Structure formats: C-alpha cells, structure tokens
Amino acid sequence: MTAIVDYKMGNLGSVKNAVEKMGGKPEIVSNPQDLKKFDRVMLPGVGAFPDAMSHLRESGMDEALKEFANSGKPLMGTCLGMQLLFDSSEEFGETKGLGFIPGNVVKFDKDKFDKELKIPHMGWNELFVKKESPIFSNLPKEFYLYFVHSYHIVTDEEYIIGSTYYGYEFTSAVQKDNIFGFQPHPEKSHDNGLKIIENFLKM
C-alpha cells in the first residue's frame, strides 16, 4: 500500500494514476495518523514552499512524515515535495523545511544563465545518474524527465544521485537511506518516470 500525501498542494490525481498503472495500490491520505499503516509514502507537490510547510504543520502531517521517515520505510518526494525534505527554502523569504536531508532550496542564479534561458525551468531535460541506486534500476545512465520549477536544491555531494544541466549543473535527484527526492515529475515523464515509480513500489 502506498500513501500519497494530500496537503492541498499536490497533483494527486496524476500521481495516483501513475502508481496504479505500475501495479501499486495508492491511497490519497490527509489524516496524519493514517500514514503508519502504509508500506511507503509519496510526497508530491506543486506551488510555493512556505504555503506547503504551513499546511503540513497545521495538519500535523510534518510530524507524521518525520515518524515515517524514521521508520526506515521508503519515502519519496517529487518536485515541491522533494524540496520540502530539506532544511530550508529562500522562496518568499526563508522558511524551515522538514529537515530530513541536509541542504537548502535556492532560486536559479540568473547570472550564470545564457540570455536564452528562462525561469521557470520548464519542459523535458536530461537527468545524469551520479550514483547507483535501486531507484534507477533498469534505467540508463542518462535519461529525460519533465521539469517545472524555479528553485533547486543545494546539498552535500553524498546525497546527490542525479543532476541536470540548465544554465549550470544542479541537483535533480537525491537519496539519504530510505528517503528519495526527484525535482522532476516522474508521473508526467512517460516511460522513464513510470520506471522510477515502479522501482519505488518494489522497495
């Protein structure tokens, strides 16, 4: 059973459909007390970091996610959900995150960009595998996924399992033990994204 966390800011329907397509049994969960019943948790998200953390704290879902992360069961955040796994974000001022993985969320640095590049980073781009991980099982070392974001992660090299180039190289996939994060949207990334979800379901 896979819990998809509902905190009023996720593209829940498409995530649920993708999990079902890969043979999973997803359930959209808004009650923090229910998380402990599941084998794995997905934390999707679209929108602003401060609003997301406000919803998680007000509902008590932040503490439920922390308990789940500490249980050793697989947890995966995608897009905004990935960013929430880290210590803080500078989006609309500094906001404290869940703190599951050391690091911070920063805006793309326009000074490092070609004039042709635009923010947000939107569309298909390549993920380069930096470290072996079960989440990349049966995927090539380089493959395309779908991105939509204006901010990205800065973290320690030991947690970086994938990177992408947009103006400069940034972190697009992370892992710390049982916790995974993807900046792109696997549920919108056709076969490659579905393979990531399938690998997660096998954990």
What is the element layout, followed by pairings?
Layout: E1 2-5, H1 12-21, E2 26-29, E3 40-43, H2 49-59, H3 61-71, E4 75-78, H4 80-83, E5 86-89, E6 95-96, E7 101-107, E8 121-129, E9 142-149, E10 151-155, E11 160-166, E12 168-176, E13 179-182, H5 190-201
Can you tell me about this structure?
This protein has 203 residues and is an alpha/beta fold. The protein has one domain: Class I glutamine amidotransferase (GATase) domain (Rossmann fold), CATH 3.40.50.880. It has helices at 12-21, 49-59, 61-71, 80-83, 190-201; strands at 2-5, 26-29, 40-43, 75-78, 86-89, 95-96, 101-107, 121-129, 142-149, 151-155, 160-166, 168-176, 179-182. A nine-stranded mixed β-sheet has the order 2-1-3-4-13-12-11-8-9. It has a four-stranded mixed β-sheet with strand order 6-5-7-10, with helices on one face. It is globular and about 50 Å long. It starts with a strand and ends with a helix.
Explain briefly what this protein structure is:
This protein has helices at residues 12-21, 49-59, 61-71, 80-83, 190-201; strands at 2-5, 26-29, 40-43, 75-78, 86-89, 95-96, 101-107, 121-129, 142-149, 151-155, 160-166, 168-176, 179-182.
